Amino acid sequence: MIGSAESSRLGWSVASRARTLAKAIKSMYGPATKAGIAAVLGNWEFESGLNPGAINPGGGASGLGQWLGGRKSALINFAKKNGGNWKSAGTQLAFALKGDGSDSSVLKSVLSGTGSVASLSGQVLFAMGTWWIYSTTCGWCTKD
User: Fold this and answer.
1) Which terminus of the chain has a lower count of CB atoms within 10 Å, N or C?
2) Any idea where the domains of the chain sit in the sequence?
3) Dihedrals φ, ψ of 101, to 5°?
């Protein structure tokens, strides 16, 4: 769906990027629930503004999930191995779901969760430690 999409193709507004990314996640990982997607995207919105090209000037954390250090290197290597651009949303989603070691398992668990957005966001914070909680409510996540 968004494979090699550049951030400009995701749309300019955060809501547009969120809708596009939510559809892509659901397409790439069928068991994902609206609450699970909202928990992850709420976090990534805080981290990167849902901009796959975001780079934190204070430390170099990059992408949707603000990968840093060994995880950023793993993202770049994943992109090279799979013929993608590490700054594309599609590559970052594929990496998050398949190439981020045990964190991919955590992500899938949250994405397929059936609890509230707040409880699923808490699982992200507890399990991954590097992500922060942005929101416990989500207006766009219940819209088709």
Assistant:
1) C
2) 31-128
3) 55, -140
